[in-house]
Amino acid sequence: MRFTRISKAVAVGAAAALALSACAASTGNTNNSSAAGSSEAATGGEVRVVEVNAFSSFNSNTAKGNVDINSKIAYTTTSSFNYIDNNLEIVKNEQFGKYEVVSEDPLTVKYTINEGVTWSDGEAIDADDMLLAWAVMSGRFDDAKFDEEGAVTEGTQYFQYAGDTSGLSLTDVPEVGDDNRSVTLTYSKPFADWEISFGVLTPAHVAAEKAGMDQAALSKLIMETPKGDPEKPAETNEELKAVADFWNTGYDTKTMPDDESLYLSSGPFIVDSIVPDQSMTLVRNEAYNWGPMPKVDSIVVRYIGEAPAQVQALKNGEVDIIAPQASADTIEQLEALGDAVVVEQGEQLSYDHLDLNFSGVFKDENVRKAFMHTVPRQQIVDTILKKLDPEAKPLDSQLFVPANAAYAESVANNGSSEYQEADIEKAKELLDGKTPEVRIMYNKDNPNRVDAYTLIAESAGQAGFKVVDGGLGGSEWGTALGTGTYDASIFGWISPGVGVTGVPQIFGSESSSNFNGFKSAEADKLMDELIVTTDKAEQEKLQIQIDKLIWDSGYGLPLFQPVGVDAYSSNIEGVQYMPNQTGVWWNFWDWSVKQ
Fold it and tell me: What does the DSSP assignment read for 370-408?
C-alpha cells in the first residue's frame, strides 16, 4: 500500500489508526461497490471530470509518478483482486481472481488470476505479472547504501517503488502454480496489511521487451537473482537494472505515446488521447469483461487548478463532476448554482504539510526549528478554511487526525504545543544572527498552495530568512520531490483509510517516498514493529511514539486537515462521496448520464 501525494488539500480522515498514504494498485481498481461481478448494460454517453493536477505518468507506483491524478487514471485502467469502498471496507473482485490464506502460521497467501483475463493487447495477465509486482514491491534485490543526502554510495537501488517495501520483504521467492496463473507468498512474520499490499502493477511482457528479453526470461531472472544485502553489496545485475530503469521512468510522459505498449489497460477504460497539461480522454477497453461494466462510453478528464474556474466550468455545462480544492468562497459559489448541481462535503483522508529537507540549509536542526517557529499555522487555517469550517484548527499530528481516538494523546505527547503560533523572537534566537536562504517548492497552479506559501514566506522573512519562490506547475511539482532542488516543500498526503504501511512509506529512512531525508534508527525500529503488529491498540501506541520522534527531529509541520467538497451536475447519477485517495472515482462504473 502507498500514499498518494495530492496538490489539492485533503483531510486525513477518520478511519482506524491513520496511515498517511495512498493504496497500491491492489486496492485501487475497477470493481463494483454494490455488486462486484455485475455486468449491467451500458447506458452510453460521456462524463466530464475535473482534476487539479495534470497527468504526468502511466506508472503511478513510482516515487515520482505517485501523484493523485496518475493514480486515478490507473484506477480506471488497472484491475486487481480488491478495492476499498466508501465505507472504507475491502471488497473482493473475484471476477478478476481470488486470494486465500493457505496458512496462518506462517502466514501464507495464494493469489490466482482467472483464465481469460488479459491486457488490452490480448496478452494474458498471469504469474509473470505478479512476479514483477513482487520484485518491485518487496525491494528484495536492493543492496544500496546511502549518504546523509540520500545519494547511493555503494551497491544498487533497483525499483523506485512509491510504497513501503517492508511487508513484501518478509516473503521469500513466490511459488508459481496453476499453469502460471497463481503465486503463493509465505511471510516470515505476520504482516498487518497483507490484504491490501499486493496486486498486479504493470505488464511483465512490456518490461521484458524494453529490457531486451522475453517474459519467461524475466521471470527466471526474478526467481534466480539472489537477495540483496546492503552489508555486502554485489556488482550491479545489469539485466535487472535494465528492467528497473524502464519501470522507474519509461512510463513518464505528459503526451500520448506513439508506443501503445506504454498505456495498456486491464480495466474498463483505456486512454484514447491527451492534450498535454489540459485534458485526457478515456474510452471503453473492449477486451474487458472481468468485473463490473461501466455505464458510460467515455470519460474526459480536464485539469483545472483554481476552484472558481472549476465552479464556472460546471455552471457553463463544460464539465459534469468537480472536486475542487475548496477555498473560502467555494460553497457559496456552488450554492448559487441552485438545483442544477449536487454538492457534498466531508472529511478526507489527507493533510497539508510543510516538509523541511535534512540537508543543505536545513541540515542544522536549529535552523529547521527556527523556520518551524515562523510558520503562521493558524493564519493559514483562517485564510483557507474558516469560511468552510469555522471550527478549523491547525493539525497537530503527523500520524493522526482529530477523529482518531489516539489523536489527543499523541498531541499531548509529541511537542506540537511549541508551534501553535508563529514565534518570530524564538526563531531569531535559534538563528543567532544567521540569514539563511530557503527555496520553497509547491504547486503554483493551486491557489491554496499559493496562499500557504505566501503567508509562510512573509512570516519567515521577519525572522531573517531569505525565502525564494520555488513554485512549479501542476504536472511538474510531483516529479521534483526528492531531487534536492529545493529546501522545503508544501504538498499533501492522502490515505486509503486502512492499514499502517503508509507510515514507513513516508518516514522510513530508506523509503523512496521519504523525500526530505528524515532518518531515525529508533523510529525505523518502531516502524518495523508496527507493520507486524495486528492489534489496533498496539498499533496506536507505536504510532504515538513515532509521532513524537518526528516532531522532535524538526521534520516540518502538518498544516491542516482540509474540507472535502464534491459537486456534480444533477444530470449525472451514481456519484458517491468518498474520503480516501480515489475520491469521486471510487465507483466510476456506476456513473451514468440521465437519458
Answer: HHHHH--HHHHHHHHHTTT-TT------SS--TTSTTHH
- Residue 590 sits at φ, ψ, to 5 deg, of -90, -10
Cell of 284: 471503453
Q: How far apart are CA 24 and CA 62, in angstroms?
A: 11
Q: How confident is the model at residue 544 (pLDDT cuts 50, 70, 90)?
A: very high
Place of cell 523506485: 160
What's the maximum distance between 2 C-alpha atoms anywhere in the chain? 70
CA end-to-end distance (rounded Å), the chain: 39
**Strand ranges inside 482-541, DSSP E:** 488-494
453-477 CB burial, b ≥16 within 10 A, e <16: bebbbebbeebbbebeebbbebbbb
- Parallel, antiparallel, or unpaired for β 488-494 and 437-441? parallel
- pLDDT category of residue 152 using cuts at 50, 70 and 90: confident
Q: At what angle do helices 377-385 and 447-463 cross, to 10 degrees?
A: 150
- Cell digits for 109? 497467501
Instruction: Measure Cα distances from 483 to 13, 138, 144, 490, 516 in Å.
Output: 29, 23, 18, 15, 9
C-alpha cell at 77: 485502467
Whole-number Å distance between alpha carbons of 63 and 236: 21
CA angle 134, 580, 7 (to 5 degrees): 90
Per-residue pLDDT for 14 more than 50?
no
CA proximity to 161, closest of 125, 128, 201, 124: 201
Cβ burial, residue 92 (10 Å; 0-12/13-18/19+): middle
Q: What is the tens place of the pLDDT at every residue in 428-444?
A: 999 999 999 999 999 99
The pTM assigned to this predicted structure is: 0.86
Determine the residue type at 510: E
Run of H or E residues at 177: strand 175-177
| Cα atoms found within 13 Å of the Cα of residue 34, Cβ hemisphere only | 13
Average pLDDT, the chain: 90
pLDDT tens digits, residue range 447-457?
A: 889 999 999 99
pLDDT tier at 328, thresholds 50, 70, 90:
low
Q: What are the percentages of helix, strand and coil residues in the chain, rounded to 5?
A: 30, 20, 50
Chain segment 358-410, per-residue pLDDT in tens: 999 999 999 999 999 999 999 999 999 888 888 899 999 999 989 889 999 99
Q: What is the 3-state secondary structure (H, E, C) of 309-345?
A: HHHHHHHCCCCCEECCCCCCCHHHHHHCCHHHEEEEE
pLDDT at 68 exceeding the cut of 50: yes
User: In terms of Cα–Cα distance, which of 342, 337, 340, 306 is closest to 324?
Assistant: 306
Edge-first strand listing for the sheet containing 298-303? 269-275, 279-284, 298-303, 46-51, 321-322, 563-569, 341-347
Helix runs in 22-93, H state only? 68-77
Phi and psi at residue 469, to the nearest 5°: -75, 110
Contact 188, 171 (CB under 8 A): yes
For residue 150, the one-letter residue type is G
